[in-house]
Amino acid sequence: MGTIGEPSHSMAAHAIRQMSPWDAASVAAILQESPEASHWSVNAIVESAGNGVGWVAVLDGQISGFLIGRAVADEFEILNMAVRPEHRRRGIASLLIKTALEWSRSGGASSAHLEVRASNTAAIAIYVRHGFVARGRRADYYKSPVEDAILFTRS
């Protein structure tokens, strides 16, 4: 899929930029505040930032949310996304999703996929609003606590 561009969506004072390995500590802190998200080690975040595709939402110089994905052939997968609890319900997740989908579409992706905790109704609502459709379920996919994942796809 080509080089990662730097789409620059903004809402109020939020800006979306490409994630760098230096953002890993901030992303890890957001994950610590987000029990519904998949928890990754700082090393896994650094590796994803260096090798994968990721964006951060920045407000007043501070990272308020992130999205990490990967592109394989003509598919894009959202691997992890979270927004700081105090910054939720401000459209940040939507900006991150739009940025990722625009980037993947421009690189030739014809579909996008993700898994989400079955109990994460807020995330499910956001993904449905962005055109994702539930296509299946993975039993006991998540750990701590053990929970099913719902599989979503968008063409």
3D architecture notes:
- It is a single chain.
- The protein has 155 residues and is α+β, with helices and mostly antiparallel strands.
- It is 28% helix and 38% strand.
- It has an 8-stranded mixed sheet with strand order 1-2-3-4-5-6-8-7, sandwiched between helices.
- The N terminus is likely disordered.
- The longest helix is centred in the middle third of the chain and has 15 residues.
- The protein has 4 helices and 8 strands, in the order E-E-H-H-E-E-E-H-E-H-E-E.
Radius of gyration using CA atoms only: 14 Å
Overall body shape:
globular
Low-confidence stretches: 1-11
Euclidean distance between termini CA atoms: 17 Å
Mean pLDDT: 86
Based on secondary structure, the structural category is alpha+beta
Strand order of the largest sheet: 1-2-3-4-5-6-8-7
Number of strands: 8
Q: Hey, roughly how much beta strand do the residues contain?
A: 35-45%
List the helices and strands and how they pair.
Blueprint: E1 10-11, E2 14-18, H1 24-32, H2 42-51, E3 53-59, E4 62-72, E5 75-83, H3 92-106, E6 111-117, H4 121-129, E7 133-142, E8 147-154
Parallel strand pairs: 5-6
Antiparallel strand pairs: 1-2, 2-3, 3-4, 4-5, 6-8, 7-8
